[in-house]
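Lab notes, practical 5.
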Amino acid sequence: MLPARKHLESLWQARVKGMRTMDELAETASFGTLLRKYRQRAGLTQTALAERAGLSRRGIADLERGVRKAPYLRTIRQLADALRLLDAERDTLAATVPRLGTSFASRQLEGAQQKQRLPMALTSWKRASQLSVLGAHDEFPPPRSLDAVPDNLPLQVSSFVGRQRELAEIARLLAANRLVTLTGAGGCGKTRLALQAATDTVDAYPDGVWFVDLAAVADQQLVPTAVLAAMGIREEHGRSAMDALAEFLRHRQTLLVVDNCEHLLDACARLADTLVHACPQLRLLVTSRETLSIGGEAAWRVPSLALPASNQTPATEELAEYDALRLFAERARLVRADFALTDDNALQVLDVCRRLGGIPLAIELAAARVRALSVGQIAERLDDQFRLLTGGSRTALRRHQTLQALVDWSHDLLTNAERVLLRRLSVFAGGCTLEAAESVGAAQPISRADVLDLMTGLVDKSLVVAEDSGAGTRYRLFETIRQYAAQKLLDAEEAADARDQHLAWCLELTKDAERGLHGPQRRSWLVRLDGDQDNLRSALAWSIGSPGRCRGGTAAGGQPHLLLALPRESGRGP
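Output from the prediction step:
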């Protein structure tokens, strides 16, 4: 036997022996225990491992604590690569997950780096050595690629923070529905959440997981072609792209993630409807600022990142567990390695995250400013968010590089009447009822009867948030959107008229409340006034600052009503 061959065979026998030892260890050790052992040996914190593997710190913590006992194979591969584990260590880690099975895990985890570990010329010899040394043809099938499940999911270069409940909910929706649409305001994290959900469930789709980004597609007719291109499927002469796509996916168990659909709603709706009816095993995960509005669609609004309630101020250790603050801290460390949440800055970070509405992109842009500003200085400058929140990644979509560009994109997709109503809604502080919106928004070119449909459209497009207050539905703008709309109101030279309308509505409210507070509905009126305290203060400030502007002397005459409606230290007015 040639010396080189003898050497390789001895190495292989040693490895087999090592694998058997590791298998014995895997029988007594849990996945979390081994993961912690390997992480500590590598000298990594949970945060550092999360960043290197493209996972969340909380996810790492849950795995090590045993909260999650059966991670997906893709997650195991990411961890093994990040920890630079040897082959046998990879096998051992995977073997602790019962549903994978030792031989399955072994061949899956090996395949990815096959070409890096052995020259191509030795691959077939290694296969023969396996069979001759072990005498077990069925235990070692031909090595397979890492991507036994084909996918084109882009590799994420920054860590995924939090969102564990959201990921669980999306997984539940995908299990129960064939079309799931994630909606939400620009920058709320729809794309990143969809990608992570797809990554976490990749092993559930043996025929592939495919990501299609439609941001750069401007022509509705090119949507099916864009999907074909993303999947690497060639168009056929004389056959439409839609037919080719439907035929390819007809009998495949596949997940298709279609991102940025809001500017191509009609085409995306046709695509989804056609594929759902033609391909019974297909699942579609769509992101859009507005739903597709077709049969069978399960729409789910992506929430802002978790924050404490407005009346809560937890200790620093507890604050560090909220997703919004964790995101700020992790992104701040990318530009200033020594950044950490401390007793000195935690409340300032909380203030920044609250004022940004927990919107991930806005928080990331704010965190990037710590290279030149303290957190306190960032908070002080948030009154002009669009000037402060710039400087996103040069390789990101252009509309994700600045907050201004992000909101411009959403604003450009509105009808003219929706733009008019949106800017008029900016005069409300703390939200409003539909009746209040009708009182302020109904002026040329909008009639009172138009407001409900226009408001519904703004809610559907994720620019207005509808909330059940217990006393009926209230509508509000995120502070980011309110600032933007307020500037549009000034640009249109409508600010003074809209503020006058707002003041007039507040005066009518307080006059009605004055009568109601003395009757049997006192309690409901107190609740209603509580909900509009910010509006009343804003109207009072306008009436004091602009007495000459207000119609018919309503400013001076109405100030006593506004003052009586505001709370006093010893209680409310009569």
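Observations recorded by the TA: The longest strand covers residues 179-183. The chain has a mean pLDDT of 78.
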